[in-house]
Structures are given as C-alpha cells and as structure tokens.
Design a protein that fits this description.
eight-stranded antiparallel sheet; elongated; mainly beta; 33 strands; single chain
C-alpha cells in the first residue's frame, strides 16, 4: 500500500495564467464541472465570476459542488460579498440524502462580510454545533484571528487559500495564516461554494484553481487474511493468550487482576511524525493508546506517552509512563495534560464506542476524542519517535474491544508542504 502523497488525478489543462502546478476549476463561461446540492439558492456566471444568490426565506443551505473529489491539495480562489449574508467554501466534503434533496456535510472555510471568523473551520452538517461546540480550530490564537480579520477587504476581492496534506489543514485569508489544524474525520471529498439560507446574501467567486497532491492513506494494524480470519500487521502481542479477533475483525482483550504484566499490542516499527487512531469500547479496567514509546523490562513493558483510555474524564488525556532499562527505573513525567470537563461533553458513555486520535508532529502533540480536539500543545521535552501500542493495564480486571487501529505516517515530502508559507 502506498502511503503519503500519491500521483495526482488528471484534470483539465491549466489556464495560461494559472500558477505552475495549479489547474483552473472554473472556465469563466459556464458551470461545467460543478453541480448544485441542497437548498434553493441560485448560481450563474457573471463577468467571469460565479455568483451565488440567496433566495430569501427558503429552507436549507445551498452548495455549488465540484464534480471531482480531492484528498491532498492547495486550493486558491478569490471571493467578494455582493450582498451581506453568510457563506463558506466546503472541502473534503460529501452529501447524504435528506428529504427530497441532499445534505452536504464536511469541512467548511467560513466566510463572513467584514472578515469576522473568516478562515475558521466549521464542520457543516456533521460535528457543527454538537455539544455546543462550533469551531474545530478551538486552539487558534486570538491574535492570529484578529490579524486575519483586519486584512479583510469588505467591499473588494479577498484571497482564500486552503491546504490539506494528510491530517494537516491550514487556511489563509489575504496571505494571513488563520487555522493550523490536525484533524482526520475525512481525507477526501468534493469542494463546494456555499450560500447560507436566510433573508439575504450574494457572493462572487473567481480565479478558482487547485494543485492536486494526491491522497494519503491509513495503514491498518488489523488485517483480514486470505482465509477470512483477522490478524495483526506490523505489530505483535504481549500476553497473546489474552487477545482474540471476532469474526468481524474486532480485537477482544480480557485481562485478569491477578496478572501484573500489561497485555499489549505493540507496533514492530517506530513512528515519529504521524496521526494514529483507534475506536474502543471498555468494560472495566484501564487502557491506553501508546505512542512514541520504547520497550523496557518493566512489567508494563512500554515507556512513553499514553493517550489515556479510562472510561471517564481522563479519556484522551496525556500520561507519560516510566520504564525500566538495565535494571534501573527511568522515571516518567505523569500527567502532561488533562481536560476533564470538556472530555465529559464529547465522550460517549454507557459502553458505547469512542474514537481517540493522536497526531504527533515534531514537538506538537494533538489529541481528539470523537472528532473534538481535547488538547493541542507543544512539548519540547517529548520523545521524537517510538512505538505505537494498545494497552490492557496490569493488576486489574479489564475487558477491551478495539477496532480500526490505524496509522498515517507524515512523510518528509508531506512535511515540506505542511511547513511551507504562501
């Protein structure tokens, strides 16, 4: 399986005035290559621009969507509000049936007259407003938002740039960085130009061009063999007698209080920059998603970071575990970050499935639970590489179910794009 940046999809020939590597998504004449989904807003071509107009007091947001889908890309365009309203640019998006039409959902680059909140990331039709949480980029510094808003030209054209590379999502407004986010809810989808339902709103878009960077793929640790059974890939068991796969590929672990050693799944490779995720359900005990960890002679084996799985407000908190090397205990650092009040908002309770995710990029460590960021910190003391693992804690009765344990390495080529400036 090829991971990271894959060969770009074939698109129409680039216009002569488009930057190197970019192709135009709008021919300036008609709406070829685009399809309308959602509400009743109207789209037409005027003076070389796509103009979307709200039909007042009609239900549903409307989107003019690209027929093509994109995974990793750099998208550039210009917009101008012709009439005050609310708008945005969808990316890595999809649609589902709703009533007699379709409901678009996915990432949205927010657009508002005057620049307020413009460039922030909203999850249209999916996580938006769930648990009272509006923005996916909750850790964006206020001074960065203020600088981007101040650059907005209210009655003139504004420059939008959106870059997606694996789990990295970055946005700019008029050359000012707005969002620098790690998120993994979707890795591919169509683009869309939104007109929000309401009393008014008209927006023009032009110079819509994209550099297609292919698509990043997840590497699964649970794989189906030719005989239909499931097994580990690039990983091993500690206490294998405690682990078994169900017929549908869920890893089931049962650990006894009398066993002092941890039951573990440990990757056979080290990972430095990556995003990893696992979906879990637990019935008693304590668990974790280990990352950047090293094997030691301690009963718990691994020393390093734990993305905590505790079935309480400590879920997705960061704990740093001690180890034993050559008979000498190497101390850990304990709790690095917790966010219990927020976690209790987004955690699924009563034995339901939860998905926890860790992105590690240099000194930056990002945790999400069920798609909501629980922490985003820079830790200069962190390990820079190590093993991934799943834990059943020793010395306690524990029963765990794991599925969709996957990693997406961030390659050197991807890092060059993530770290670039416009």
């Amino acid at each position: 399986m090829m991971i990271g940046l894959l060969a770009p999809m074939s698109l129409a020939a680039p216009a002569a005035d488009v930057e190197e590597g970019f192709v135009s998504l709008f021919n300036g004449v008609d709406l070829a290559g685009w399809v309308k989904r959602g509400g009743s807003a109207e789209y037409e071509v005027e003076n070389g621009s796509i103009v979307g107009k709200c039909v007042p007091n009609t239900p549903g947001n409307t989107f003019l969507c690209s027929e093509k889908e994109f995974g990793n890309f750099v998208l550039k365009l210009q917009y101008k509000f012709l009439e005050a309203g609310n708008s945005g640019v969808q990316f890595r998006s999809a649609a589902r049936p709703e009533g007699d039409g379709q409901r678009v959902y996915g990432y949205q680059y927010e657009m508002r007259p005057g620049g307020d909140m413009t460039g922030r990331i909203y999850d249209e039709g999916r996580r938006g407003h769930k648990h009272g949480i509006i923005w996916l980029d909750a850790y964006t510094p206020q001074d960065r938002l203020d600088a981007a808003q101040a650059s907005c030209r209210e009655s003139d054209w504004n420059d939008v740039e959106i870059q997606c590379v694996g789990p990295s999502i970055k946005t700019w407004l008029n050359g000012k960085l707005v969002v620098d986010l790690f998120d993994s809810f979707s890795m591919k989808g169509f683009l869309g130009l939104q007109i929000h339902a309401g009393k008014s709103g008209s927006v023009a878009w032009r110079n819509i061009r994209i550099k297609d960077l292919g698509e990043s793929k997840w590497e699964p640790f649970f794989v189906k063999a030719d005989d239909g059974s499931y097994q580990l890939a690039d990983a091993k068991f500690v206490l294998p007698e405690e682990w078994s796969f169900t017929e549908d590929g869920v890893l089931h672990g049962v650990h006894s209080k009398s066993q002092g050693k941890d039951g573990l799944v440990i990757s056979t490779k080290n990972y430095d920059n990556f995003i990893a995720r696992v979906t879990y359900r637990m019935h008693g005990g304590n668990s974790a998603l280990y990352f950047r960890a090293e094997e030691t002679s301690a009963p718990w084996v691994l020393r390093g970071f734990q993305n905590e799985i505790a079935n309480n407000g400590k879920d997705s908190a960061l704990w740093h575990t001690a180890g034993v090397i050559d008979g000498k205990k190497i101390p850990g650092r304990g709790w690095i970050v917790t966010n219990e009040e927020f976690v209790e908002k987004v955690r699924n309770k009563d034995g339901q499935w939860n998905t926890t995710c860790t992105a590690a990029y240099g000194d930056r460590l990002v945790q999400t639970l069920n798609g909501f960021c629980t922490s985003d910190l820079v830790d200069e003391a962190c390990e820079k590489t190590g093993k991934l693992g799943l834990q059943m804690h020793g010395g306690t009765d524990c029963e765990m179910f794991f599925k969709d344990f996957e990693v997406m390495p961030i390659t050197d080529d991807m890092m060059k794009l993530i770290d670039r400036t416009p």
